[in-house]
Amino acid sequence: MLSRETTQALSEIYFANMHPVMPLLNDEQYWQSLAWGTIPVPLVHVVCLLAAKDAAAEKHLKLLQSRDTLVSAREFCSQLYTSLSAALNRRTSLGKITLMRILGLLSLHQEGSEGMEGASSYIAQACHNAQSLALHQPRPNDAGNELKRVFWCLWILDRLNAATRSRPCIMADIDIAVPDLTPEESNSVAFNVCFRIAKMLNTVIGLYRPNTKDPTSGWDTDYPAFEQIIDEMHAWSLQSATIATLHVFYRATTILAHRLKTITTLPSPTPARLRQQLSAIQLIRYMQDPARLNALHPFPIVVYAASLALSVSYQQLRYSRLPSDQEDARQDFNAGCDILQELRRKWASADAMASLAHRISIALDQLPNLDVLWVHRPDRAERDNYPPPRRELGDNMEEADHQPSLDVQTLDRSPDLERAQPYLDTKDLFSGMDDVSWMYLDAENPVTFDNFPLANFDEPPYW
């Protein structure tokens, strides 16, 4: 499918930008096998699949069947993913460690409407193979700590899958005996920073475990600052795009570090909540610059972070009563829409959220003012005595389609509300966005659009 020139160029991009952050492969073995022509084709294809979303890859996206014609990143990835999936389904003879590496990397890609399920399945298979090889146990003869490095890369991918797709962690910490990979052992400063943030994410995931007794609303004290982590890992010499990508990972973790407990009111301004708001604003401010957005390394955490930031701005827009806060949130929401539309050019995983957010943005422009969006909030005593139930996605959705969007303020039939009544026919759309924003910010429940009937997520992007 790929020429030698294309393979060489995309492999160089992968090892320059992605490998330092996630050193799951042995780079020396890769280049040697590639030069000798003995490298497994699925391994080359998964490397090229991930590198294809990098901005530097655009001029190299050529398929043999298209000759010298450049194709889009999404078409390139779709063709490559189809071939790669078919090869894995044929049970191609691959070494267990090679297969484990391919599956781990493949979890960083989502293709089509079932992409989230497929990606979760790949990391589950990779972790299963790692446990079958007892990589979670100390291995005294592990030359150069290679297997230890592979294990902890898979552990990070497992935690990313748990957070971004709301799945249970596959590898329980209590079952892991292999020591942490130290900065001296990793030989990668970028990985050291990534590992440090992943450990923070591992702590944050505990906020969302269903059996946690008396869960707190967030990580309020002793939360490490990003610059502190960079200082600890002596990482200021990393290229700016790598630091920025790791910062996006950190900001996404910080947003999750405050858990929303209700959907009827804005939470109290705890330290975790304030960090959540600040992180969402900073993510949108950074990503709305096209040059900065395109410079980020092609990890799916970028798309997830954009969706989280959009969800935070939507919650502020929906539940704040301060006109200035609502207007700021509206601007952030619209900026987030533009960011997701840009990400859709390369990331199929951005389709659903980008499509829905675009429709919400159009609906907002049709409202006479933002007051009609405000969701009625009972007083504190009423909330404490009768906490509102949360409607789950998939729970009697046919009935929910005909219900109003959470208790929209209708007691005061103000002139603005009367004029807005024709536009409130879109209330199901806002109700859907309520559910989706909650789904992203409540990482206990799996992210899925399977039961969401209000939008066609396969429609083309709006550019």
Automatic annotation (TrEMBL):
GO terms for molecular function: DNA binding; zinc ion binding. Residues 381-404 have a biased composition (Basic and acidic residues). GO terms for biological process: DNA-templated transcription. The keyword Translocase does not apply. It holds the Pfam family Fungal_trans. Residues 119-185 form the Xylanolytic transcriptional activator regulatory domain. Keywords: DNA-binding, Nucleus, Transcription, Transcription regulation, Zinc. Residues 381-417 are annotated as: Disordered. CDD domains: fungal_TF_MHR (cd12148). This is Xylanolytic transcriptional activator regulatory domain-containing protein. It comes from Aspergillus sclerotiicarbonarius (strain CBS 121057 / IBT 28362).
